[in-house]
Amino acid sequence: MKPRPAHCRGNKNPATMPTSPCPTGANLSPAKGMTRRIIAEDPNWSLAIVPCLSNLCLQSIMRNFEEKPIFEDLTDLQKDFVQERLSTSLNLHVTANLIGDGVYWKRCCEQRWDVCDVSHYGHSWKRMFFERHMENMIELFIPDVTDPKTILEMVPLCKNYVKRLDISQLLPPIKEPQKEEVEYGYELASDTDYDGPSMDHFDFNILLNKLKNLEELHLVYRVKQCGMNFEWKMFEMTDRDCESLAKALKSCKTLKLLRLHESHIEDKKCRVLVKYLLHHPSLRELDFSHNLIGDKGARAIGKLLTNSKLENLNLCDNDIRGPGAKALAHALSKNSTLLSLNLRLNRLRDEGGEAIGKALLSNHILRHLHLGGNEVTRPTAVALAKVLFHNNTLKSVNLSCNKLGVDGGKALEEAMAHNTSLTECDIRLTEVDEQTVTFVNQVVWTNQSLEQRRRDEESKTK
Questions:
Q1: Helices of type H across 96-238
Q2: Structure pTM?
Q3: Residue of 403, 402, 449, 400 lying closest to 422 (CA atoms)
Q4: Which of 160, 163, 383, 428 has a C-alpha 20 to 30 A away from that of 330?
């Protein structure tokens, strides 16, 4: 026989009073001023709404995603739900070719790096993740220690998304000291001689030809934060590195921009690199700034100008002198693609400066010329003045930090009186008269206004 409920046995405790009238209809409401409460028989009982069955299924999918990845069959809303909650520590072999660009890769980037500017990566979070992931792997690669398979295994996962690699360091091999023994007061070398590493830095020849969408490559042969272990060899490319990289660059047919700076590249290495870059089908910008390239290297680059479609060439801060500048000028006089030439901080002097000026009399393609800090004087200013008088394609000329003198400034002033195309002309620290500087600046400002009007009219017609 079932026991009677407490409220029917005369239990008047308000704490245990039911929330609804008892079946008998007796008035058992608590006394005035007291509150009622419910004591649930289930200790896990809560007010939470029971989740939808579809959400429970999605949570199950996320828990078992690594073993049974299910994503393509989901709706767009379901995919968003999964991407917002899926673990960012999943194996890339599972997620790389399955989850498209979106919230998941944004979460992966923000969890791994403090600064994440997606605008530098075509507003693609997935591209940012794989480019920076590959960069980190290369920068931490130690020759003869790191297995190259770790890099190659990533290629099928990232090759569709890597368009630019910016490598800020390349580690050299770990040097193991040669063992020595002391016998009878003499130091004798051990039987096991040290043969040296099989490579000097990361071998790009195993990678670049596999990245079918790579367009930009920025390289610096250096070691960051080397501390007390500093050696000059940590900041240069070796001959084997040069040969390997040159072959890799030739095999990378999609490359548009190569920036190889601050790596102690001298004439020999420059010529090797240029040899493999001749007739490159897509290379448009070359940056060899802050190296040790001299006249022989400049001659090789001059040959490259006549056998490629380069549009931007940066040779800033090298050791190019008059003969090298003449070789570049000869190539420039025949070139029909180069738009920008930067020779700042070399040693052209007037021998090279005049040659560049004469070449521009027959070149009507170049838009930007930088000859700052090249020890050029009045003859170079006169040569460029003739260019500014006849050439209407140059947009900017930089002659700062040279000794043009008052006469050189007057020559430029007379030429600028007839020029309507130059919108930038930097003649600071050139010992030019102040009146000349003022006049040149006024002409530049006028040309800038004319250029802006042309652009406005063109935009209206479109």
A1: 103-112, 125-139, 149-152, 155-158
A2: 0.83
A3: 449
A4: 428
